[in-house]
Amino acid sequence: MLFKNVHIKNDTEKKDIRVEDGIFKQIAAGLEPLAGEEVVDYDDKLVLPPFVESHVHLDTCFTAGEPRWNMSGTLFEGIDCWEERKEMLTKDDVRKRVNKAVRIQAGNGIQHVRTHVDINDPKLTALETILEMRDELKDYIDIQIVAFPQYGILSYPKGKELLETALKMGADAAGAIPHFEFTREYSVESLNICFELAQKYGKLIDVHCDEIDDEASRGLETVATRAYETGMKDMVTASHTTAMHSYNNAYVIRLMRILKMSGMNFVANPCVNVHLGGRTDTYPKRRSMTRVKELTAEGCNVSFGNDDIFDPWNPLGNASMRDAVFMGLYAGHMLGYEEICNSYKFVTENAAKTLHLGDKYGIREGNEANFVVLDAKNYYDALCYNRPVLASYRKGSLIAATEPEKTNVKF
Ligand code: FE2
């Protein structure tokens, strides 16, 4: 199969892509069709590697308003709402909601997802269900599961045991939530446990780290130091790190050294960070997104996630990576021309690095032919005009397609 006339990752030159047996066979300009070869002419459209959702909670998706709405818009009322909704969890309920979410994600060109699943549940209902679905859906979407202790490892009954059980059941990564533990001592010790268990079972780590506007919340320095000292480095991710928005600059300068040495990844969730953050402020109100611009400038790997899809923490979450990038660029003061053009990396290459996908991810000869086609000739236009993902290919097969809407102005 030959895909003609595409701009790969903003390349101004048009290229052709030949796919054979689900693999990128040849990528070059001016390829001629072979005898009997199917040809699709994408006439000046943008081709990117599939979008990667590096932080989302599939277990909580589509639960906004059940049993009640988060009226304060705070992280903590969201956690209270979820605690009530969690009482209603069944495998069938989880399955229906996750099936809906992954199909919306597929339509948006997402083929890799890292989902955090709340394991502070003695029955581990959501984890068991999503583990099953990870296998069932693997031909269409890769689901990576973080065992996420929503209420803490040490501040929830048998939190450590539940985390260990979740890893034994097959979760891909260990989580932690140091800013939600009862004490600073618990916070540090919970991270020690997280690293100990991840190493014991050979898992990745993704910590909900300092998701609070408290400038004294300093789990990040511990995560970075453990990532460095254990040698786990880029197997470790710190999600949110919103307190870093509020740290004083003198501290950040000192902190940045170990962040760079650690080699760890960072995930910002721009829509949710801006929505949940600054809630205790009068004016000025903090925007509460971590220092994406500065971390990027220092060479740290940063990706963007959505965090939530229509749940107590984001009632407008819609699983669009475009929305995460759009908000991230605005909140991060990153609307320079090059920053806009390159911003697709936050939800493709950088996010793939966070998920530890390695060289198998990306548009290059010999890799699985996984790619998306956008209705624009470059990412600037795709982002600016909110153009849809026309097609998502997985191993060369079309798994989702969108017909662009057409507007007719009558004057
Ligand atoms: Fe999260």
Describe the model.
By secondary structure, the protein is α/β, with parallel strands linked by helices. It has two domains: 2-49 and 362-401, Roll (Urease, subunit C, domain 1), CATH 2.30.40; 51-360, TIM Barrel, CATH 3.20.20.140. It is 34% helix and 22% strand. It is built from 13 helices and 15 strands. It has helices at 75-86, 91-107, 125-136, 159-169, 184-201, 219-230, 249-262, 270-276, 292-297, 321-331, 337-342, 349-354, 379-384, and strands spanning 2-8, 15-20, 23-28, 39-48, 51-56, 110-118, 142-148, 173-176, 204-209, 236-240, 265-268, 301-304, 371-374, 389-394, 397-401. The strands form two sheets. The protein has an eight-stranded parallel sheet with strand order 5-6-7-8-9-10-11-12. It has a seven-stranded mixed sheet with strand order 3-2-1-4-13-14-15, with no helix packed on it. β9 (204-209), α6 (219-230) and β10 (236-240) form a beta-alpha-beta unit. α2 crosses α3, α5 (184-201) packs parallel to α6 (219-230) and α6 (219-230) runs parallel beside α7 (249-262). The chain is globular and about 70 Å long. Bound molecules: fe (ii) ion (FE2). The site of fe (ii) ion (FE2) has 6 residues, from loops.
